[in-house]
Amino acid sequence: MRVPNSVVLPVGTHVDCCQEEEVEEKRQDIMAKITAMLAERKSNLAHCINNLEGSEEPKFYVDQWERLKEMESCTLTILNLVAVNCTDHHDIKKLEATILEHVKNEELFPEVVRVLPPVYRQVEAAIVDMAQSEEMADHGMMDLQYLLSKLSQHKHLANLGRELLQDILRYLHRIGLVVWYEEIKQLESTVFLQPTFLITMFKLLVRYHLVQQLESIS
């Protein structure tokens, strides 16, 4: 809701826990709730903006007004919900195909046709090889400067600079190949070449009844 021109694909899981007729009923219910939520958000934003504009001292609220107007201008495209049975490989492939179909839609993603410089692909391939090598630790964490030095050992990447590598990492982060939290000071020099490791960590730390489980330990 805060990202300009964002596109959202709702995915309903656990289809295997539902009767066939329930799936369509739940799909319609979820889409109706999303539509209602967006309408309520639009109404609330308009109400807040009107309140600020009608205040006795509107000049004191310029920053808030600008923030609200910016949020109001963020368009949100909601695609049709995809219902999947996560235990069925066929359904997972169907979801993958649906995502790819939407991503290739130039109306939804105008930048999808942008051509990347060859060095982006070269760095991507080198990082994939590095992540899959036996030398790589399971956690896949690597210091940014060390990563640069390792990549520079490749003949065609000998002139790779830190700024260009950072641009490439931003792209690789966006497509999900690596995770790089450059905006977090404590993590800006660390690149996660194995994003699945983070997922495993989050599953251990963020889970149902975690607080109760911790409190039960003497």
Task: Provide tags for this entry.
52% helix, mainly alpha, 8 helices, 218 residues, two-stranded parallel ribbon, Arc Repressor Mutant, subunit A
Walkthrough of the structure:
With 218 residues, the chain is mainly alpha-helical. It has two domains: 99 residues; 84 residues, Winged helix-like DNA-binding domain superfamily/Winged helix DNA-binding domain (Arc Repressor Mutant, subunit A), CATH 1.10.10.10. It is built from eight helices and six strands, in the order E-E-H-H-E-E-H-H-E-H-H-E-H-H. A two-stranded parallel ribbon has the order 1-3. Helix 1 runs antiparallel to helix 2. The longest helix has 34 residues. The chain is globular, with a radius of gyration of 23 Å. The relative contact order is 0.09.
Rg result: 23 Å
Percent of residues in β-strands: 5-15%
Could you tell me the number of beta strands?
Answer: 6
* Total domain units: 2
Distance between the termini: 43 Å
List the helices and strands and how they pair.
Elements: E1 6-8, E2 11-12, H1 20-53, H2 62-72, E3 76-78, E4 82-83, H3 89-103, H4 118-132, E5 141-143, H5 144-152, H6 162-174, E6 190-192, H7 195-205, H8 210-215
Parallel strand pairs: 1-3, 2-4
Antiparallel strand pairs: 5-6
Helix pairs in contact: 1-2
Q: TL;DR?
A:
52% of the residues lie in helices and 7% in strands.
